[in-house]
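agent> Task received from the user: take the single chain below, predict its 3D structure, and emit structure tokens. No templates, no multimer pairing.
agent> Plan: (1) validate residues, (2) run structure prediction, (3) serialize to tokens, (4) report one or two observations.
agent> Step 1 OK, no nonstandard residues flagged.
tool_call: predict_structure(input=
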Amino acid sequence: MKINRYITRGVNENLSLDLQILLWHMVEERDNQPHTDYLHIFRLKEDDNVLSVTHEQEQPPYKLDYNYINYQKNENVWPKKVYVIREYDVDTFYYVMLLPEEY
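)
tool_result: status=success, residues=103
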């Protein structure tokens, strides 16, 4: 089944494509588990060449930290937080990746 994914302008302008793909993969992995929340919260932190990503959900409580060593940061300044929200339509659902200020 094909799942539609959308990004906002803020995500398009502030997150590199490879980072967007990484976050989408993390959402997909988590949503393969039973009883996942509609809201995915990602906290991003970059220190030297290490990218730390904390993936959280409120219901049920979930938190997983990822560290990527030798990650090549692009020229953009990363936001500190990114949301991915699962939205429901009449007979399907889709995802939207957005920055907190776009919520």
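agent> Step 4: summary for the user.
The longest helix spans residues 17-31.
agent> Done.
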